[in-house]
Amino acid sequence: MTQTFSSGESPLFDRVRFIMVQPSHPGNVGAAARAIKTMGFGDLCLVAPRFDDVLIQPEAQSLASGATDVLAAVRIFPTLAEALAPVTLGFALTARPRDLGPPACDIRAAADLGCMHLRQTAGRVAVVLGTERSGLTNEDIALCQRICHIPANPLYSSLNVAQALQLAAWEMRYALAAAASLPLLPSTQGQADAGHDPASGEQVQALMTHWEQALVEVGFLDPDHPKKLAPRMRHMFGRNALTRDEVDMMRGLCTAMIKTARGTDKKRQR
Q1: How would CATH label the architecture of 11-179?
Q2: Is-above-0.85 flag for pTM?
Q3: pLDDT band at 189 (very low <50, low <70, confident <90, very high)
């Protein structure tokens, strides 16, 4: 029985399909499953893979590495037309320029177009990748609505199919996450550390008093002729918006400076 996968992040993610046409290496299939799961997707389809048992081959299982649920949910179709049946906007990913076919765009523009399509319609978007050796045929591309390129080194633009799929999944994720106001930075999912809070004015002033005392003890600041050193130091610390932890750290440094300076003076007196 075919399983299904849902990221749970946004319904839009569940309407994006990644299609590998005639994959010949089981490892690439496993790596593709891992690639799309890391980006929040789960709909991976294969068209006429070289091996009928590709999903259970050791290399596929190994490179899926934590994404075996996505691998188990993979659907296999005999033709690309069948894999694209529910899709309303398909992007044919290719490295080669094509004289004939649908309009071309880069992968970032494709992600933006796909995101807009998903938000404005009830349709589905697909990214289609070809075989490891020769890519997509002209007939494959004719089934899609856009040709899509990954800007790469023109002298060596060949990407491994799983790597290309990872880039496509990343661009699509970024576009969808931004549109859905999903967080783009990792969360600690824990209680905030009070030490990271901004230090209060009182704490900063106490630091400055301690700091000036330490500078006097080590002979860097002459209290009878301070010139503009003290106010410059205050401006410097003020510009850096110190946290509580940083104030505590600097006061610990002040204490060490004073202790060392007084210890040195005692040795000299002996």
Answers
A1: 3-Layer(aba) Sandwich (3.40)
A2: no
A3: low
